[in-house]
Design brief:
alpha+beta, 4-stranded antiparallel beta sheet, 6 helices, 4 strands, 37% helix, 23% strand, elongated, disordered N terminus
Length: 151
């Protein structure tokens, strides 16, 4: 889901005014999510939708409850500039069940770099305090701050 572009606009639209292809895309996505279809091809066949229409709309149309339940948090890191640090940081974030939405890293100066991560924490398997404590224990992390939360 592309929620990080500030120029994008979102609208809440009543279902009865949506084009049929969008409705069928939502239906196919739900079938895939609930494992009621084995593949995209299977799902689009069941709802009578072309695969091209599915791929056209799949990342642009969402059920209202999906957007509402999504929890997003932005974290700021001050890291030592060493080979593999970002990879190790991202591995820890992934192991916590978070999904990385955006990454912004500055050019390292004086052996340090700033990294900002936007994370979907909906599926996180620990508390935010536990995640922050684990991240702060990483030897190359000088600082971790919570910049904002949509949770």
């Amino acid at each position: 889901m592309k929620l990080n572009n500030e120029d994008q606009k979102f609208y809440l639209v009543r279902e009865d005014v949506l084009p049929e292809a969008m409705k069928k895309t939502l239906e196919a996505k739900e079938m895939i999510e609930r494992k009621k279809a084995e593949s995209v091809w299977d799902a689009v066949q069941r709802v009578d939708l072309s695969r091209s229409a599915f791929y056209k709309y799949r990342d642009t149309v969402f059920p209202f409850h999906t957007i509402v339940k999504e929890r997003i948090i932005s974290l700021f890191f001050h890291l030592e500039d060493r080979s593999g640090t970002l990879s190790k940081l991202l591995a820890m974030v992934a192991s916590s069940g978070c999904n990385v939405l955006t990454i912004h890293q500055t050019i390292p100066l004086q052996g340090r770099a700033n990294v900002t991560l936007s994370l979907n924490v909906t599926e996180m398997n620990m508390s935010m305090d536990e995640l922050l404590a684990q991240l702060r224990k990483l030897e190359f992390v000088d600082k971790v701050d919570v910049l904002g939360s949509g949770a």
